[in-house]
Amino acid sequence: MKLLQTPLYQECKELGGKMVPFANWEMPVSFSGLIEEHNAVRKNVGMFDISHMGVVQLKGKNIKSALQNLVPSDVFRIGPSEACYTVFLKENGGIQDDLIIYDQGVLDTNEESIVLVINAARKESDIEWLSSNLSKKEITISEFMPEGALIAIQGPESISTLEKILEEPLSNLPRFGHRTITSNPNLINSQESIFIARTGYTGEEGFEFLSSPETAKSIWKSLIASGVTPCGLGARDTLRLEASMHLYGNDINLDTTPFEAGLGWLVHLEMPNDFIGRKALEKQAEVGTQKKLVGIQVLDKGIARKGYPVLYNSETVGIVTSGTWSPTLQKPIALAYVPSEIAKVNTQIEVEIRGKKHPAIIVKRPFYRKGF
Q: What does the domain layout of the chain look like in residue ranges?
């Protein structure tokens, strides 16, 4: 199957982006190099083409009431211009996908609007699942700006950099806040709407915005001219792993529940509403889980990669789901599922790397936390 290309594909190629297949897309894994890109986001500002992500719009009446049946988080806790992170679940409590819900309030058409940002690899199955569960609710489901480009600008200098280019105040937008702005007419020939949110996947301050390809290309070039570092999937992975943010397909999937994955804070069993997977999670809340996702630090230079065995008292007890060398912490870090009885900070374990056992220890997550 031919790989898909984002509206910013050519811009990435022109900047020397090394393209690789990812979730049926041809995406840049790096530009100047993973370490340089990673450090740019931690210390200054970097940007990512994330146009491969799925962006879905729900429109109609009483959308939150219908959507509440599909997620374990209380969606009524957010109002217009606010957002929340949550998960879609199966009946067994397994995670179908993780996503962000953006409440747009009531549109000019007098319809309510909710925007969902979902994972690229789960886009088709998520839309099909939404359609089957919302078909009788008189809610329309469509891709939000299907031809648009989605860009993430991340790092401590992201606010000041983006404010200068967009000529729009952004420091007053709260974290997980969002709004629609009008593009700076100096960037393109005509003013257009840009959906912008103070969210990200790096553990740093930052924004994500969705616009037409023409507007996105203009902003992308202006960001480059301002000294913003283009970043690829490699740095995106090391950044999110340092912040202990989950990657679907690695750290969460249909066989893991929020309680097992350390996402119990997303489960609001105190609310009276029913939701898919509630019974399974109520049982886990009562009796506990058999496994838990933990943070691991390898104590030598060995790097624990996905699929490597985790050992306790010389017996294999778990498996690494994500692992890397942390550019910020200068040490090997990983996430892994282990039996709940040993999932305690400072537990001594081992990771088998290419047939050799390496000493490791369970540590507190996240590995890195920005003080903002």
A: 9-50+148-241, 52-146+257-287, 290-372
The pLDDT of 143-166, averaged and rounded, is 96
Relative to beta strand 178-182, strand 112-118 is unpaired
Query: ∠355-361-367 over CA atoms, to 5°?
Result: 110
pLDDT band for position 371 (cuts 50, 70, 90): low
Tokens 């979902």 locate to 118
What is each CA distance from 168 to 165, 182, 204, in whole angstroms? Answer: 8, 9, 20
Pairing of strands 331-339, 315-326: antiparallel
CATH number of 290-372: 2.40.30.110
Whether the ω angle into residue 366 lies within 30 degrees of 0, i.e. cis, is yes
Q: Give the C-alpha separation, 29 to 126, whole Å.
A: 25
Per the rule left: phi > 0, alpha: psi between -120 and 50, beta: everything else, 67 is alpha
Residue 257 has pLDDT above 80, yes or no: yes
pLDDT for residue 189 is more than 70: no
Tell me which residue has tokens 């089957």.
132
Statement: residue 308 has pLDDT above 60: yes
Please state, in angstroms and rounded to a whole number, the distance separating the CA atoms of residues 319 and 126.
27
Q: What is the mean pLDDT of residues 148-177?
A: 96
Listed residue (294, 286, 290) closest to 339, CA to CA: 290
Look over the chain and give the mean of its residue pLDDT values, rounded to a whole number: 96
Looking at the DSSP assignment, which residues form a beta bridge with residue 182? 193
Domain 9-50+148-241 fold = Gyrase A; domain 2 (3.30.1360)
CATH number given to 52-146+257-287: 3.30.70.1400
Instruction: Dig out the tokens for 281 from the structure.
Output: 């999670």
| Cα 325 from Cα 336, distance rounded (Å) | 15
Structure-token match 């950099």, residue found: 161
Average pLDDT rounded to a whole number, residues 158-170:
94
